[in-house]
Known about the structure:
Layout: E1 10-13, E2 24-29, H1 39-53, E3 59-64, H2 69-81, E4 84-90, H3 99-106, E5 110-114, H4 116-122, H5 125-135, E6 139-141, H6 148-155, E7 168-173, H7 177-185, E8 191-196, H8 204-212, E9 221-222, H9 236-249, H10 258-270, E10 279-284
Pyridoxal-5'-phosphate is lined by residues 38, 40, 69-70, 144, 172-179, 254, 257-258, 285-287.
Amino acid sequence: MTAFTKNIPVDILDANLISQHDVHISVARLDKLHPIVSGNKLFKLSHFIAAAASTQHRTLITFGGAYSNHLVATAFACREAGIKSIGMVRGEIAEELSHTLRACTAYGMELHFLSRSDYKNTQLPAAVEVLQQRLGSCTIVPEGGYHPHGAHGAAHIMDHLALPPDAIICLAVGTATTLAGIVRSAQPGQHIIAVPVLKGLTDIPHRLDHLLGEGTYIMPEVVPDGHFGGYAKKTNALIGFMNALYAQHHIPTDFVYTGKLLFTIFEKIRNGHFAPGSNIVCLHTGGLQGNASLPAGTLNF
Ligand SMILES: *Cc1c(COP(=O)(O)O)cnc(C)c1O
């Protein structure tokens, strides 16, 4: 079933299948915007792509790991816009490229491999500045689009959704760039629940200040223990949940972001965290290509 959307489809789940709690739960399917390129990434990139398109060199450089949704989305978006893309990859080149990096190459991205320590150094603000000076008019996109431009682009997700004025908007958090965009565009009656997928991501207020500029905005509720041990860590319970979710509701999720988000929110529903009548909307931010790194047969979709 689809409801209250402009053009991102929203699936309403039958909450009776989850529990006897009287809440409304739906999933905004940004993953349906493209089969490989996850929904939130294209939004985060939009302002960088526009910036690169307006320069003479029309070249964009970004950073990511061998399974990065951000890298592959950047490669795709640049190809669509006729912009040259360069990906700086964390870790030495492997004998066989990951499926993600092969997709990047297929979309025309030029890849450079950096040792983990060199990669870490390139993420320092001073290093980005040096790189920017050396590369002149190339457009540099920090890892994950973590920059005010990225947050600005992510704010447009809400233009494509018509959510209830009292919606409780739930989303997975990596760099918090998408979160900042949602915070920026949410209405005063809406509430935001952020589920970090990294252990120890305790600086969300600081990140929001960097991404949005200091000011007043709706502070999200942060769930600190929804990460399953850390970034890209998984348990049998998580995989079992993802398979059950697909069997019952036909929603595919990934084990790094949206599987953890939905697991955490379902658990909160069962624990009675939400008042009766709550309008819970989970953002499915895409990222399904990452599941290709799991052994065949792990998932039922
Ligand atoms: C990258 C990603 C996120 C995290 O987005 P941030 O803006 O870095 O917080 C969430 N979900 C999926 C599927 C992603 O690929």
